[in-house]
Design goal:
Elements lengths: L15 E9 L2 E13 L6 E7 L7 E6 L7 E7 L4 E9 L2 E6 L5 E7 L4 E9 L6 E10 L1
Antiparallel strand pairs: 1-2, 1-10, 2-3, 3-4, 4-5, 5-6, 6-7, 7-8, 8-9, 9-10
Protein backbone atom coordinates (compact mmCIF):
# COMPACT_ATOMS: atom_id res chain seq x y z
CA UNK A 1 0.00 0.00 0.00
CA UNK A 2 2.12 2.85 -1.27
CA UNK A 3 -0.48 5.60 -1.62
CA UNK A 4 -2.99 7.03 0.82
CA UNK A 5 -6.50 5.62 0.56
CA UNK A 6 -8.53 8.29 -1.32
CA UNK A 7 -11.29 7.92 1.29
CA UNK A 8 -8.90 9.51 3.81
CA UNK A 9 -8.39 12.73 1.81
CA UNK A 10 -11.41 14.57 3.36
CA UNK A 11 -9.95 13.94 6.84
CA UNK A 12 -7.32 16.62 6.16
CA UNK A 13 -10.06 19.04 7.30
CA UNK A 14 -9.70 17.70 10.87
CA UNK A 15 -5.93 17.96 11.22
CA UNK A 16 -4.89 20.00 14.24
CA UNK A 17 -6.03 20.65 17.78
CA UNK A 18 -9.61 21.45 18.71
CA UNK A 19 -11.03 22.51 22.07
CA UNK A 20 -14.25 20.69 22.91
CA UNK A 21 -17.37 21.31 24.96
CA UNK A 22 -19.38 18.17 25.61
CA UNK A 23 -22.88 17.74 27.04
CA UNK A 24 -24.67 14.55 27.97
CA UNK A 25 -28.34 14.03 28.93
CA UNK A 26 -27.31 12.41 32.25
CA UNK A 27 -25.06 15.30 33.34
CA UNK A 28 -26.05 18.90 34.02
CA UNK A 29 -22.73 20.40 32.96
CA UNK A 30 -20.62 21.36 29.98
CA UNK A 31 -17.39 19.35 30.02
CA UNK A 32 -14.36 21.02 28.46
CA UNK A 33 -11.69 19.04 26.70
CA UNK A 34 -9.38 18.83 23.73
CA UNK A 35 -8.99 16.58 20.70
CA UNK A 36 -6.14 16.35 18.22
CA UNK A 37 -6.01 14.75 14.80
CA UNK A 38 -2.66 13.99 13.18
CA UNK A 39 -1.40 11.74 10.42
CA UNK A 40 0.69 8.79 11.52
CA UNK A 41 4.05 8.94 9.78
CA UNK A 42 3.51 7.76 6.21
CA UNK A 43 0.03 9.30 6.01
CA UNK A 44 -1.87 5.99 5.79
CA UNK A 45 -3.60 6.32 9.19
CA UNK A 46 -5.07 9.21 11.15
CA UNK A 47 -4.54 9.27 14.92
CA UNK A 48 -7.22 10.88 17.10
CA UNK A 49 -6.49 11.67 20.79
CA UNK A 50 -8.98 13.23 23.19
CA UNK A 51 -8.84 14.41 26.80
CA UNK A 52 -11.76 15.56 28.93
CA UNK A 53 -11.94 17.41 32.23
CA UNK A 54 -14.53 15.21 33.97
CA UNK A 55 -14.12 11.79 35.54
CA UNK A 56 -17.23 10.43 33.79
CA UNK A 57 -15.86 11.31 30.34
CA UNK A 58 -13.01 9.00 29.31
CA UNK A 59 -9.84 10.05 27.57
CA UNK A 60 -9.35 8.14 24.33
CA UNK A 61 -7.19 7.34 21.36
CA UNK A 62 -8.35 6.16 17.99
CA UNK A 63 -6.80 5.17 14.69
CA UNK A 64 -8.66 5.78 11.43
CA UNK A 65 -7.81 3.85 8.28
CA UNK A 66 -8.75 1.06 5.94
CA UNK A 67 -10.04 -2.12 7.60
CA UNK A 68 -8.02 -5.30 7.52
CA UNK A 69 -10.71 -6.85 5.30
CA UNK A 70 -13.42 -5.13 3.31
CA UNK A 71 -14.02 -1.65 2.03
CA UNK A 72 -14.50 1.80 3.52
CA UNK A 73 -12.78 3.10 6.65
CA UNK A 74 -12.86 2.16 10.32
CA UNK A 75 -12.06 3.94 13.56
CA UNK A 76 -10.41 1.62 16.08
CA UNK A 77 -11.27 3.25 19.43
CA UNK A 78 -9.69 2.70 22.86
CA UNK A 79 -10.40 4.65 26.07
CA UNK A 80 -9.27 5.09 29.66
CA UNK A 81 -12.13 2.88 30.93
CA UNK A 82 -10.67 -0.06 29.01
CA UNK A 83 -13.37 0.11 26.32
CA UNK A 84 -12.40 -0.94 22.80
CA UNK A 85 -14.76 -0.54 19.85
CA UNK A 86 -14.66 -0.56 16.07
CA UNK A 87 -16.72 2.05 14.23
CA UNK A 88 -17.35 2.63 10.56
CA UNK A 89 -16.35 6.18 9.64
CA UNK A 90 -16.62 8.42 6.59
CA UNK A 91 -16.62 12.03 5.45
CA UNK A 92 -18.88 12.64 2.48
CA UNK A 93 -20.01 16.06 1.23
CA UNK A 94 -18.49 17.67 4.35
CA UNK A 95 -20.44 15.48 6.78
CA UNK A 96 -18.52 13.27 9.22
CA UNK A 97 -20.40 10.09 10.17
CA UNK A 98 -19.50 7.26 12.51
CA UNK A 99 -21.54 4.16 13.28
CA UNK A 100 -21.47 0.94 15.22
CA UNK A 101 -24.10 -1.74 14.87
CA UNK A 102 -24.71 -3.87 17.93
CA UNK A 103 -28.05 -5.40 19.00
CA UNK A 104 -27.93 -4.01 22.56
CA UNK A 105 -25.89 -0.81 22.09
CA UNK A 106 -25.78 0.62 18.57
CA UNK A 107 -24.28 4.07 18.08
CA UNK A 108 -24.21 6.67 15.34
CA UNK A 109 -22.69 10.13 15.04
CA UNK A 110 -23.03 12.98 12.60
CA UNK A 111 -21.35 16.38 12.26
CA UNK A 112 -21.42 18.91 9.43
CA UNK A 113 -17.78 20.00 9.31
CA UNK A 114 -16.71 23.63 9.18
CA UNK A 115 -13.19 25.10 9.12
CA UNK A 116 -13.20 26.72 12.58
CA UNK A 117 -16.09 25.24 14.60
CA UNK A 118 -18.75 22.54 14.34
CA UNK A 119 -21.01 20.43 16.55
CA UNK A 120 -21.51 16.68 16.40
CA UNK A 121 -24.21 14.55 17.99
CA UNK A 122 -23.99 10.93 19.10
CA UNK A 123 -27.15 8.85 19.27
CA UNK A 124 -27.59 5.41 20.86
CA UNK A 125 -30.08 2.59 20.40
CA UNK A 126 -30.22 0.01 23.17
CA UNK A 127 -33.16 -1.56 21.31
CA UNK A 128 -32.75 -1.81 17.53
CA UNK A 129 -34.21 1.22 15.76
CA UNK A 130 -35.01 3.19 18.96
CA UNK A 131 -32.49 6.03 18.62
CA UNK A 132 -31.99 8.55 21.44
CA UNK A 133 -29.79 11.64 21.52
CA UNK A 134 -26.70 11.05 23.64
CA UNK A 135 -23.43 12.98 23.70
CA UNK A 136 -23.20 16.34 21.90
CA UNK A 137 -19.75 17.83 21.32
CA UNK A 138 -18.84 21.29 20.03
CA UNK A 139 -15.40 21.54 18.42
CA UNK A 140 -13.53 24.85 18.06
CA UNK A 141 -10.19 24.95 16.25
CA UNK A 142 -7.45 25.82 18.77
Amino acid sequence: MSERDPALEPFDALIGTWTTEATHPMLDAVVPGEITFEWLEGGKFLVQRSRNEHELFPDSIGVIGAPEDGEGLVLEYFDSRGVRRTYGIAIEDGVLTQWREHPTFAQRYEAKLAPDAFTGLWQVAETPGEWKDDLAVRYVRG
